[in-house]
Design brief:
This protein is α+β, with helices and mostly antiparallel strands. It has 3 helices and 5 strands. Strands 3-2-1-5-4 form a 5-stranded antiparallel beta sheet. The chain is globular, with a radius of gyration of 13 Å. It starts with 9 loop residues before the first helix and ends with a strand.
């Protein structure tokens, strides 16, 4: 996987990748609570090769979201993901700083 470090609009990147014929998923923060590092409406876009742009958590859960996004790309079925300190995955994905985050992942096109 590669990460592009420039501050570009993830939705514009998704549109560009889709226009190039890549399969693309878009992850969107839809709810936060506590110390979640990204606001509602933040995006992470992922192509079928695992390339990504943007952020939904400042690095706390991106790896887990990318894995789920690749499944969404393959299956075509959207997913609702939730991470937080009360969740059994909190320590595994690194959201131990507190807070809760809900992310919707859908395939583009």
């Amino acid at each position: 996987m590669t990460m592009e470090t420039t501050a570009r609009d993830p939705l514009a990147i998704a549109e560009s990748w889709h226009g190039e014929g890549r399969t693309v998923a878009i992850a969107t923060v839809i709810e936060t609570w506590g110390s979640a590092p990204r606001p509602v409406g933040s995006h992470l876009v992922i192509d079928g090769e695992g390339n990504f742009e943007g952020s939904v958590s400042g690095g706390c859960v991106e790896g887990a979201v990318i894995t789920e996004a690749l499944d969404v790309i393959d299956s075509g079925q959207s997913k609702m993901l939730e991470f937080g300190v009360a969740d059994e995955t909190a320590w595994r994905v690194g959201l131990s700083c507190g807070g809760r985050i809900r992310v919707h992942v859908e395939r583009l096109g």
